[in-house]
Amino acid sequence: MKEIPLQLSLSQTQRSRLRAALEKLQDLASKSTASVTVADTIPVNHEDGILKGHGTSEFNEEVVATVCGVVERVNKLVYVRTLRARYIPEVGDIIVGRVLEIAPKRWRLEINFSQDAVLMLSSMNLPDGIQRRRTAVDELNMRSIFEENDVVCAEVRGFQHDGSLQLQARSQKYGKLERGQLLSVPSYLVKRRKQHFHHLEKYGVDLILGCNGFIWVGEHVEPKDNEMVEDHQKQEEFTPLETRQHICRIANSIRLLSALGFNLSADKIVETAEASMFSNIAIKDILGAEFCVETAETELKRRVSKRRS
Amino acid sequence: MVGLSIGEKKFIQGGISQDLRADGRQRRDFRPISVEIGVIPQANGSARVKLGATDVIASVKAELGRPSSLQPDKGKAAIFVDCSPTAAPIFEGRGGEELSTELSLALQRCLLGGKSGAGAGIDLSSLVIVEGKVCWDLYIDGLVVSSDGNLLDALAAAIKAALSNTGLPKVSVDLAAAKDDQPEVDLSDEEFLQFDTSGIPVVITLTKIGRHYIVDATSEEESQMSSAVSVSVNRRGQICGMTKRGGAGLDPSVILDMISVAKSISQQFMSVLDSEIAAAEAAEADDA
Predict the structure, then answer these.
(1) Which residue among A64, A83, A102 closes a domain?
(2) Closest residue of A to B1, CA-based?
(3) What distance, in Å, lies between the first and last C-alpha atoms of chain B?
(4) Same domain membership, residue A169 and residue A116
(5) Is A3's CB within 8 Å of B53's CB?
(6) Which residues in chain A come in under a pLDDT of 50?
(7) Which of A36, A54, A111, B260 lies 20 to 30 Å from B102 when distance is taken between CA atoms?
(8) Which residues does chain A have within 8 Å of residue B53's beta carbon, measured at their own beta carbons?
(9) Using the beta-carbon criterion (under 8 Å), do B6 and A178 form an inter-chain contact?
């Protein structure tokens, strides 16, 4: 589940094209934000009296940044929001995580946060859909719901008093994810939106963009109540080849977009996958040099035209 | 080691039986490879090879030494591999030791040949300067910087690139100075002899998952393997060494099949690697 850096053997022209496109993209972006690197001075008005927040320090009576990121100001507080940091949860976020261990009445999940998240047995619907008190028997059968290493989709419920992060999965759309692959991208590339579950009907693919940067691409499954029984018969057969091709194409599009550092939205991902299909590019060549340059140039054109209109 | 849920394991196995792996490759496709040479200025030769998210560095250090009395007409070469704790948390402390030893042994078997030095990919007799008196000792070190499967192939490729980057200083020996003791040697600062790498094999690892086998497995795929066979093949298509990992047994006919597949793949891989090394050499010459 490593983030795949692009290994491009670019030709001379491709390299200059890519560099030009990325530079122009940077020019378009940098006008709005005050991004700093380590040891950059942050301009402040000392007369107002300021509070130095995270990622800042005082040096020779100037406020300097100690991390790379974007300067944020909230009233008197000045801090630097770091890039490429770990995921910072907010209540209501939809996340994808992996079960690390089963503890009494709870599962512990890895969600790319600075600590493990907790999913209580009481804050999820039982597979048979009954709302009732969780008994000791339920507690003993927790492994039949989620095992170690299972990929689980859930929602951030909130922080407890002791600072631990609580999750909930009180709906049929949450739960175990099977038959697909989990990708990990920097979490800042996934913006919070209204919709994080996407069923791409044309391809029969489910796409879940977790706010924590874990992205699930898998075969579409209808949410249903009592899946426990028939589960085991269904496991024997593999994903159909055609669906698998779509899954791999979409997954590779996500890998490419995240390597180029573009925000990930379902539209953008599908657009990239369709562009690759349109120009007859093999699935493994999506990560190749030519398509990478083309994608960067398309994105540049899109942003330029958006700016004009 | 990566933990995978049952659903993901099934997905990987299904992909391999349908000849479409998770990143869109087919069973016999390598990931894109990139080669950088001359990354360690202190070494006589060095190279860094990236194969997808796998990242390894190899360096070659040459020292003047004395050939062993049993083989006065041959130089010495030794291979060591180290797994950096930055690659995976389990490599911290002594955690990577087992894997390091396994990798070094496999590479020694694949590149150095038997104890007698016969069948070696690295021509040890070219390392002799004065028979029985002076020879080059080659210390070949591999470092795993980031691990995403198929370490052996990447290390072998890095060693091949590092050796092609190696220049051994020209040595002039004054035999008259001392008859029975070590003769006096003089190293040239300007003239370097290029190391002949045409005979150095590449290693192709075939990982068996389910009923099929694949090349260049990622660590996710490796976690599903039943066994893996690494074959080292030289430019002429000859087998220089073999190692098998994994607990499950293999039918002899499967092994023969694997060897012939490895042989045909090795020729493609060798030409890709050669062109990457040439490109890296050109890039380095541009920088200088």
Answers:
(1) A83
(2) A1
(3) 41
(4) yes
(5) yes
(6) 1-2, 227, 229
(7) B260
(8) 2-5
(9) yes
